[in-house]
Write a structure and sequence with these properties.
Chain lengths: ~325, ~425
Amino acid sequence: MGPADPVVRFEQVTKRFGTFTAVDGISFEVPRGCTFGILGSNGAGKTTSIRMLMNIYRPDAGVVEVLGSRVDEATKPRVGYLPEERGLYRKMRVEETLRFFGRIKGRDDAFLAPRITQWLEAMGLSAWRHRRVEELSKGMAQKLQFIVTVAHEPELLVLDEPFSGLDPVNRDALRDAVLGLKRGGTTIVFCTHVMEQAEQLCDRLVMVHRGQVRLRGTVAEVRASQGRDAVRLEHRLKPGARLEGLPGVEAVHDRGHEAELTLAPGADAAVLLRALLERTHVSRYELYHPSLHEIFKRVVAADAGDEGEAPAA
Amino acid sequence: MSRTFLIFAREYLENVRTKAFLIGLVLTPVWMGLMFLVPTLGRDSTRSERLLLVDDTGELAGPLAGQLAPLRAGDGSARVRLEALDPQEALDPAALQRRAGQGEAFVLRLTRSLLENKRRPAQGEPAPVLYGPSGVGALEAGRLLEQAVHAVVNGWIVRHSQVDPAVAVALTTPTVRYTSLTEEGKEGGPAQALAPFLTMLMLYLGVVGISQMLISSTIEEKASRVYEVLLSSVSPLQLMAGKMLAICAVGLTLMLAWSGGGLLTASVQGMGGVVSGTQAGLFLAYYLLGFVMIASLMVMVGSACSTLKEAQNLMSPISMVLALPLLLSFLVMRDPHGSAATALSFVPLFTPFLMMARIASVPGPPPEQVVASLLLLVACTVLAVRMAGRVFRVGILMVGQPATLKQIWRWMRTP
């Protein structure tokens, strides 16, 4: 496998469960060293795709290649996998857990010992080294699960919703660790339905919905492909005023004192600003490409419009 | 190091490190030892019994008292305290029966007919009776009284007839005593007669009892979501094999300890040589094959369910089928190599247990039947493992509703 060859390759991959098609002819490639996002709502087919990548599910059609060959048991030790549903042996001690999962990935104690010490220190778990997993808090258990995923130094890291359920402090600690690995050259496949996280971490992405790829490219390419701009707003509404019905605004993503306004084609930003000043105290007004969140909502809404269904939550 | 071995070692150590395992390991042989020891202790704890005697003969009370006098209870007092009953009281047999039934005393009536060569009483004439309370404790005292009365009446008849006392003794002495032997020709004793059932019971407890640990272990790990992490490193088959062999080894550890304890106790009790080397080897073979075959069923149930309650529902019909070897074992005990026992011992789910019971009988089954049963078990075990592997790989990632039988059947057929 050459340095230019993709680390992961999906070619027309399909997976069905009975009559339900979870993944429908998906194709994408993940270049070496890239942080690649698979984005989509719950039930879009992300986890099924990841499980096929890990050879946990077998595709009904198409080809899945990991690290240059058809995915098989031999490639598993070269991959680190953090599933969405975290799981460890509750009665095992922290260090014992890390040794067990490291050995199962084919590493010996001499390789694992210094890395375990280093990672426990980096994640603030050194004092818990000899405690049982069941004694850890949820945040600590998630950090331990992350160390389990990376301690054997995989070439490819697969993270399925890595930040779900974490408080902001632990989320930042984990994000810094992921960025450190990315800087070290580890290829990362990252699966999430939280678009802000994808914007922060991903070099390239595919957006999947109902088992199919709807958008692909770098974050900038995906944004540019959607054409329409947006306005990011920090503000305080005047009494009785609302953001709906602003001139040239197609959609409002209201987050309280922050909002994202998607502009209709040809909308005049100056006219919009004047209208806003009448309704609210504006502290920040930024013309921006649409966020992945907005783009994703459009994809879902377009799909619902096609099929006459409500968009997925 | 093999990934399957790592799974095996973790699972095995987790199970044998538990307090429950260690308690079971130590206490079961102690319990088996007590089973032999307690009856011995019981012999010294007999109590003194009251016997109400109605002697219509006027001749037997004295000799009976003499016969019973040397017998002592556990506390050194007379084993039987004889009390003559007013003949008037004997006129109400129902009242006597009630007093005996309520445990107040044993009641004995000796009639004239006994002295007339134990002839059958005429119509309206009282019959000899010995009443006592029900219960295991009273049975031994009852037998003691039977023997004493038998000796006293026989002695009276011999003394009052023309029979030579030596002839009388000869007539009442057993002519030949039946002795059961092991295959090596050594005296087997009662353990030899019980060997087929005990061997089958032990194998059954080891296979069916221990393999059920797989259901709870599979469900527990499914709930803890650890499977998906493991499946990123090992294949479902490696995972299942590691778990299954670990529980199999846990059972083997227990049984080695138990059978070691059992055989030790048996040899201390002079019942050694009950199990031959060939039988031990075959026991191991049937244990391993039977365990893996039935453990495959348990793994299927565990992986198809998310809670123990769901698993219990799914297990109900399987448990009924698995209980059949115990229910049908009487056929093997009665005629180990008859057509019914032979046919049933070739039903795969029954084979390990019923065939082992037949092997523990003397003589054993024809060697070709043993070989055929082993080949059948190998084939069925391979098939069961393949089916379980297919259910396991899908089931362990399923959450929420338990799988339906239709779904399980579809998973089994999907290669």
